Structure formats: structure tokens, C-alpha cells
């Protein structure tokens, strides 16, 4: 499901019954070359994979894995199954053994340095595999000499996980802390997330999921349906309970009928749909938190405990409440409803503050009660295949890897335009409108994933480390390189609520990344609501072919002179590459054609909603698509000159017509940066 898990490439491992369940975890730090099949070498050499397996029976699988590996050291290659992730990892580490000296050395992971002579931490697999990162660092194309393959099997350790995610951090919000300084080093990112805490003594931990703000629009429209879809597909543990919480008085049955009206089964999930819905609803309860969230959260915790029983218990809270309520809810939760017997993970909704200062305050307040690794800042737009495809395309295709830099890429465009079918004003009662809603998280995360250096592994913290470096390399946006717009309300029609003057519903900008890879390449952003077209796409335009033999045929035709890679999300998911070819007939005439991978033609499945994808990631402990505090701060920092000018009314959004193209100024902005406006 998640491209970061590389599921489709995995060999299946035999289920073993074994007596090793008392081992909290097993890490095997290297496999001798001779003992590994060529296929495995290829797999591990050319990719950095998180191998997956079913979340059920995890202990029985992996506590036996070491024995089995020692006995066999042979993977049944052709028998590939789709399995879940994070139970088993292969890490490829260039040059040095990170596992033995791992700054992220999780308490969840203990390195097995035991005796078996066949397992030596000094076994290297030769140079062949290390050429898998031709774009690494600044010397694009230079492979390193040797890499090591490490196999890490993680077996559950309830106590370590509890320590890892539930203990209160030492960090306290110091009121004297200077507001506005960037949060470059949040308290601790040492923990590698894993699903390993889901089993204790061979029993699966229970999972309690609480939707705080259960009666709200988002909960009804997106969160409960996504939870049901996960439940249907078997991605929630058997002993899951779901709690709706808000201040309204409501019974369990009333909540159930409210949710029932929004549940549907996907086309590929029709079997037993009604039964599954009934099962799901039976596990759903309502809790009226009243007007004192401290009391409410204590009641919720007590209710959860009744369902959880005596074994390990994980808790996930989705805070789908208005911003004004966020701090009270999160602090009451942190004090009164964290799990004492497993992990507690907390999802918060955007906007993540409104500017550097408010975001800094919010982060500090949150981190005074909750650890960074417990926090999942969700932007559901990041749960799309298109976003995951950025990394898959980049890091698993040699046709793109060497080209991914300023030498070959002329510009990058990120376009997200919504038409009149989407709500406009009601989402923007105050704050900076589309800047906090979409630009700060969605657009900056897209650019970070597209432009970051290759992460050491696909582990969430490794990816986040690279994203934050990239975000910090983005030059602060000059107000002169930004066009803001606000759609003009039509009386009685869409958008008839008057917005505050400084609330943009359109944002276009040219930004630059000041690093060796991207120096001088414009990244163009266009994001708007109430426009003529609904489209979400990322376009990467390549430079002219040097000394092109066909220049006489190409002349000034930009389509012919520019190869393009396009990732379409809306209206149709697709990956397109524009290349030149000869038109059939006598003589040579060139055509620019699109090699088109249209998802709906190739994959006959209904695509899971992005909330489903991201909730699955949270349960899995995979945080690579969720912004860490330092990423949040770095992104606001880039935007701060623009926000400052907005505050001072030196920058006023230009009015544009509903259903139009947005402010014309945007076209001139792109021309100023040498880019032709390609959409519309
Ligand atoms: N709707 C959307 O499409 C999107 C929403 N978001 C974000 O998600 C969050 C929720 O949005 P949305 O569902 O639209 O908002 P709604 O106003 O529709 O719902 C808010 C919910 O929170 C509850 N609530 C309000 N105050 C408190 C409180 N003090 N304690 C406990 N519960 C409270 C409300 O119920 P009650 O009054 O009974 O307590 C209600 O259930 C917001 O932060 C929003 O910015 C982000 C992206 C998209
Ligand atoms: O997060 C958001 O997304 C919606 C668009 O999401 P969609 O998946 O329903 O198309 C956007 O309209 C909203 O402003 C934003 O907050």
C-alpha cells in the first residue's frame, strides 16, 4: 500500500512456530555474502527497503526468524506476497555500520551481536550494489566503493515501546523562550518508529482509536469512513475499539447511525460489506466529554481501559477539533488519557499555526506534554500516490536519478487548483487562508520530497532529516516573487461569505533552493481555489538537448525542445513523460508525444482515500509523510517575509473572478523566471 514499504518485492517467509517469544527482539546485523541468494543481493543492493509482513502473528514470525535464517539463509524468492510493513527491515548502509553506532539507536532495537560465526558484522557485499545511488550528494553519479547489507528483524518489546512513546518529555515550555527563533532541534528524534510494540507475550495489543471532534465535518466525511476502510481490509487489529468524543450529548447508537450514513464499501470490497459495517459499528462508542476536557479525557481513558483488558494497549487520538480547542484538548489528553501499557500517538490537523510565531508557540505547547515522536501532523493531500511516486520515481529508476539536478532540470512546477466544486470560504474564517491551509504543508512537503538528497534509509526519521535540510535550503520568498489573489464573492452564490482582506485564496510564487543540486532552478507554485479547472499536478521540465542534431526541426517549439515528466493527481492519476518521436511518413518530422501511465487503465482497483493511507501509516508508526516540528518551522521561515508584508498591508491579494484563471499577474511572474505557463 505504501510505496515506502516495497511490498511487492518481498519474498515470503515461512510461518514458524517457535519457542523464542521471550526474546524481545532480534537484530541480525549482516548476512554473509555466500549465504545469500543473488536475488537478495540484487534486492538489497539496489534499494533501501523496509520489508513487510502481516501485523498479525508478528511475534510468531519474527521471533523465529533468526533461527530460520540461520538454518536456511535462503529466501523463497518467487513466492511473493503482499504483506504489511515495518516488521522486518533490510538496511543498506554505506561504509559504516549504523546499526552498531546508531544515533537513532532505538530502545526498541537491540543489536544482535551474538556468536553465530556465520553472522559477522564485517561482511560486505561488493561494489556492484553501491552504485545504486548515482545522484548521492554533490558528486552526482559517483558510486561509493562498498556497502553492507544488514538485516534487522524487530521483535516486539512492549516495555521499550512504552518507554519510547508514552513517557512525558523533560522539555517544558519556558515562557521566556524567545518567540520566533526557529525550532531546529526539537527535544528528541532518537526513536525509530516501528510496529514492534504491537505484541506482548505473543498476544496482540489492543488498539483504541479516539476521534476527538467526532461530530464535526471532517470526522463524518473522512475519518470514520477511512477507519472503516482500514477495518474492512484487515488493517486494524482484531481487538480494536473506536471512540467518538465531543461536547454534544449523544448515545453510542446515535453516533453509530451518524457514522453509518457515511460508510461505503469500495467496489473491490463488496464482499460481506454489510456484516463488516455492523462489526465496525458495534466496536464504536461515543463519549460526551462535556465542557471540561480534563474530566472528559479521564472518562475516555477509563472507558478505553474497560475495553483494553489486561494486556498491552496502544492508543491513537485524532484531534479533529477547531484550532482554538487544540491546546486544551491535547494537554488534557496528555495528562489524563495516555496509554500506560503501550504507545500513544496523536494526530493533529492543519493549519500548524499561522506564521512562525504562532506555530512556534503551538509547537512548544504541544511538546511540553507530548513527545515529538508521538505527534503526527496530518495533511491528507500528502497521502496520495502522486506524492509517494515522487520518491519511488526518483530513487528506484536509473533513467531519472542521474538527471535529478540543475544540470538537467530547467524548472519544476507544482500546481494545485480547485474549481467551484470545492468549498471556498468556509475553510478560511481567519488566518492566512490558502498559505496555512495548502502552501505551508502540502506544497512545501511536495517540494521537499521532490528535491531532497537521498535519505540514508526509508525510515521516517531519515526521510524527515533530508526534508528538513531541503526546507532550510529554500531561500526566503521575496514578496516580489509572490502573487496573491482572493476570489470575488458572487452575491448569493458560491463564495458569498466575505473574507477578511488579507485572506488569500490564490498563491503563485517562484522559489529557489540554495544548494548544489538546485542552484538557479525555479520552483514554481500555483495554488488556488474557485478556479476554472480542478487539477493537481507536478511538472518537471528538462533542459534543451545540448548540440541537438534536430534543432532545425525543433526551432522554437517549446514542446519539442523540452522533455517533461508530469505526475498527475487530479483529474486522473497518471505519470507521463513527454518525448520526441518521428512522425510516420517520408522525411523527418518530429512530434512531442506523451508516454502515459494512466493508473485507472493499468490498475483495476479503487484507490484508497488518502486519509486511509495516512491513518495506516500512523498505526504502523511510519511518520515520513508527517511534518516534524523543525520542518514546520523551516517552512514558515521561508514564508515569513510574505506574511510580514501581508500584515503590513503592503501586499494585498488581487481580486479574481470565480471560475476564472486567477490573477493574470501569475503569468507574468512565471515569464519573469523564464517559464511558460503551461496549464490553462
Ligand atoms: N473539514 C475539512 O475538510 C478539513 C478540516 N481540517 C481541520 O480539521 C479540524 C476539524 O475540522 P471540521 O471537522 O471541519 O470542524 P467542525 O467545526 O465541523 O467540527 C469540530 C468538532 O470539534 C468538536 N469540538 C469543538 N470544540 C471542542 C472542544 N473544546 N473540545 C472537544 N471537542 C470540540 C465539535 O463538536 P462539539 O461542538 O460537540 O464539541 C466538532 O465535533 C480543524 O482543525 C480544521 O482546520 C483540515 C483539513 C480539512
Ligand atoms: O486539506 C485540504 O484538502 C481539501 C481538498 O481535498 P480533497 O482530497 O477533498 O480534494 C482542500 O479543499 C482543503 O482546503 C484543504 O484543507
Tell me what you see in this structure.
By secondary structure, this protein is α/β, with parallel strands linked by helices. It has three domains: 3-155, no CATH class; 162-378, NAD(P)-binding Rossmann-like Domain (Rossmann fold, 3-Layer(aba) Sandwich), CATH 3.40.50; 383-547 and 617-672, Dihydrodipicolinate Reductase, domain 2, CATH 3.30.360.10. The protein is 30% helix and 19% strand. The chain contains 20 helices and 23 strands. The strands form five sheets. The protein has a nine-stranded mixed sheet with strand order 22-21-20-19-15-18-17-16-23, with helices on both faces. Strands 11-10-9-12-13-14 form a six-stranded parallel sheet, with helices on both faces. β7 (199-200) and β8 (203-204) form a beta hairpin. α14 runs parallel beside α19. The longest helix is centred in the C-terminal third of the chain and has 19 residues, at 629-647. It is globular, with a radius of gyration of 26 Å. The two termini are 33 Å apart. The structure holds NADPH dihydro-nicotinamide-adenine-dinucleotide phosphate (NDP) and ligand LXAUTJHC. It catalyses: D-glucose 6-phosphate + NADP(+) = 6-phospho-D-glucono-1,5-lactone + NADPH + H(+). Residues 211-389 form the Glucose-6-phosphate dehydrogenase NAD-binding domain. GO terms for molecular function: glucose-6-phosphate dehydrogenase activity; NADP binding. Pathway: Carbohydrate degradation; pentose phosphate pathway; D-ribulose 5-phosphate from D-glucose 6-phosphate (oxidative stage): step 1/3. Residues 112-144 have a biased composition (Polar residues).
Amino acid at each position: 500500500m505504501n510505496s515506502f514499504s516495497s511490498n511487492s518485492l518481498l519474498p515470503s517467509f515461512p510461518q514458524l512456530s517457535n519457542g523464542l517469544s521471550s526474546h524481545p527482539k532480534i537484530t541480525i546485523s549482516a548476512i554473509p555474502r555466500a549465504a545469500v541468494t543473488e536475488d537478495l543481493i540484487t534486492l538489497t543492493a539496489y534499494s533501501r527497503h523496509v520489508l513487510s509482513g502481516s501485523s498479525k502473528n508478528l511475534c510468531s514470525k519474527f521471533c523465529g526468524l533468526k533461527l530460520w535464517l540461520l538454518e536456511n539463509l535462503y529466501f523463497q524468492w518467487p513466492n511473493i506476497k503482499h504483506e504489511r510493513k515495518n516488521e522486518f527491515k533490510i538496511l543498506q548502509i554505506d561504509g559504516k555500520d549504523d546499526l552498531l553506532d546508531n544515533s537513532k539507536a532505538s530502545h526498541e532495537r537491540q543489536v544482535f551481536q551474538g556468536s553465530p560465526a556465520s553472522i559477522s558484522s564485517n561482511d560486505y557485499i561488493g561494489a556492484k550494489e553501491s552504485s545504486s545511488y548515482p545522484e548521492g550528494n554533490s558528486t552526482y553519479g559517483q558510486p561509493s566503493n562498498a556497502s553492507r547489507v544488514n538485516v534487522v528483524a524487530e521483535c516486539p518489546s512492549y516495555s521499550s515501546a512504552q518507554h519510547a512513546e508514552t513517557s512525558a518529555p523533560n522539555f517544558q515550555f519556558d515562557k521566556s523562550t524567545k518567540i520566533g527563533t526557529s525550532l531546529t532541534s526539537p527535544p528528541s528524534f532518537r526513536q525509530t518508529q516501528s510496529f514492534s510494540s504491537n505484541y506482548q507475550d505473543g498476544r496482540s495489543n489492543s488498539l483504541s482509536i479516539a476521534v476527538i471532534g467526532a461530530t464535526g465535518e471532517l470526522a463524518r466525511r473522512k475519518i470514520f469512513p477511512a477507519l472503516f476502510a482500514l477495518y474492512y481490509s484487515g488493517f486494524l487489529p482484531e481487538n480494536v475499539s473506536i471512540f467518538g468524543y465531543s461536547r454534544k450529548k449523544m448515545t453510542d447508537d446515535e453516533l453509530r447511525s451518524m457514522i453509518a450514513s457515511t460508510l461505503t464499501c469500495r467496489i473491490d470490497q463488496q464482499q460481506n460489506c454489510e456484516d463488516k459495517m455492523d462489526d465496525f459499528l458495534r466496536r464504536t462508542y461515543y463519549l460526551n466529554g462535556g465542557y471540561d476536557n480534563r474530566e472528559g479525557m479521564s472518562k475516555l481513558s477509563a472507558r478505553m481501559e474497560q475495553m483494553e483488558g489486561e494486556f498491552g494497549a496502544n492508543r491513537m487520538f485524532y484531534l479533529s477539533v477547531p484550532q482554538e480547542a487544540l491546546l486544551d484538548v491535547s494537554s488534557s489528553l496528555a495528562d489524563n488519557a495516555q496509554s500506560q501499557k503501550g504507545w500513544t500517538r496523536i494526530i493533529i490537523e492543519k493549519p500548524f499555526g499561522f506564521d512562525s510565531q504562532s506555530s512556534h508557540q503551538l509547537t512548544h505547547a504541544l511538546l511540553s506534554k507530548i513527545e515529538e515522536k508521538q505527534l503526527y501532523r496530518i495533511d491528507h493531500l500528502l497521502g496520495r500516490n502522486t506524492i509517494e511516486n515522487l520518491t519511488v520515481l526518483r530513487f528506484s529508476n536509473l533513467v531519472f536519478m542521474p538527471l535529478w539536478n540543475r544540470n538537467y532540470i530547467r524548472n519544476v512546477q507544482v500546481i494545485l487548483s480547485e474549481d467551484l466544486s470545492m468549498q471556498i470560504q468556509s475553510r478560511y474564517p481567519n488566518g492566512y487562508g490558502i498559505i496555512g491551509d495548502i502552501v505551508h504543508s502540502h506544497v512545501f512537503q511536495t517540494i521537499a520530497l521532490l528535491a531532497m538528497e537521498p535519505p540514508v534509509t526509508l525510515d521516517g526519521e531519515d526521510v524527515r532529516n533530508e526534508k528538513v535540510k531541503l526546507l532550510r535550503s529554500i531561500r526566503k520568498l521575496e514578496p516580489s516573487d509572490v502573487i496573491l489573489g482572493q476570489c470575488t464573492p458572487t452575491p448569493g452564490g458560491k463564495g458569498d461569505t466575505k473574507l477578511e482582506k488579507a485572506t488569500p485564496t490564490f498563491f503563485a510564487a517562484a522559489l529557489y533552493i540554495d544548494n548544489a543540486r538546485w542552484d538557479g532552478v525555479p520552483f514554481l507554485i500555483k495554488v488556488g481555489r474557485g478556479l476554472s479547472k480542478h487539477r493537481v499536478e507536478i511538472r518537471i521540465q528538462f533542459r534543451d538537448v545540448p548540440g541537438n542534431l534536430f534543432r532545425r526541426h525543433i526551432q522554437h517549439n517549446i514542446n519539442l525542445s523540452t522533455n517533461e515528466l508530469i505526475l498527475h493527481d487530479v483529474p486522473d492519476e497518471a505519470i507521463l513523460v513527454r518525448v520526441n518521436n518521428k512522425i510516420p511518413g517520408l522525411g523527418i518530422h518530429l512530434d512531442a508525444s506523451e508516454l502515459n501511465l494512466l493508473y485507472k487503465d493499468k490498475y483495476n482497483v479503487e484507490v484508497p482515500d488518502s486519509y486511509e493511507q495516512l491513518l495506516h501509516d500512523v498505526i504502523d508508526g511510519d511518520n515520513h509523510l508527517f511534518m516534524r516540528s523543525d520542518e514546520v518551522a523551516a517552512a514558515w521561515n521561508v514564508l515569513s517575509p510574505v506574511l510580514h508584508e501581508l500584515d503590513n498591508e503592503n501586499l494585498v491579494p488581487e481580486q479574481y473572478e470565480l471560475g476564472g484563471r486567477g490573477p493574470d499577474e501569475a503569468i507574468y511572474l512565471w515569464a519573469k523566471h523564464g517559464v511558460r505557463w503551461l496549464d490553462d
